[in-house]
Amino acid sequence: MTAVAEHSRTDLFAELPQAKPSSFAQWRALTGRVVWTMATKGELVVAFITPLVFTLGFYLPLRYVMKFQGIDYAQFVMPIIVLQTMSVTMLSNAQLAAFEAMTGLSTRLQTMPIGTLVPFLSRISAGLVRSLTSLVGALLFGHMIGFRFEAGVWQAVLFCVFSVAVGTVLAVGADGLGSLTKSPEQLSQALTLPTLIFGMLSCGFVPERNFPEWIQPFVRNQPVSQFSFALRDMAADGVSWGVLWVPLAWVVGLALVFTPFAVWASVRRA
Q: Which pTM was predicted?
């Protein structure tokens, strides 16, 4: 009787089609879930409005001071506004990864027939959507204060691509930290301090000559300043290879360090 019952159950499921998991479909579903959550909870609206806060906070207090120094501050400050909006994406990715680890979702997904890198790639893809939304907002509000792409369409495209590349690399590293930390609040506080330090001690807000001489080498050579130099040239006369190769090396170097770390943190089993 038992053998007959087992044979009947086998026949019952024999007509069902064989499951063929698709990593692409899984990535699309998980990415859509995160993007839909961001859209319904107003996070994309916040991502769009955040550049306005940075624009008002950075441009208005210093525009007259910089005008006396012969600097078009709208053109000068726009790169750091864009970079600051990209840092918000970094923080959001870190919080998302930490939340999924804290709630056990990451562990649950590891027990399911889902591609190993699918959850990680879905978070990065959702972060890319946030970055693009913030970039559109930054360029719109920048245009309102007088920022223009004076070097042509291709340099403008390069400006956007490079900005998103920086934001994505930072988001990858932050995702790895979030997967390990499992504490969104503590991680957000830990990442905010270096973001402020590198932002304020950079050539994004004021020229290098405005800093004390003893700290100028650090200010000039740190990555945020190098990113600002390249983006500023892309918007003005066009960036040369002599200027671009250093920030490009920073992006590639950070990607080579952050990506293996983030992948390991995402796929490891607690």
A: 0.89
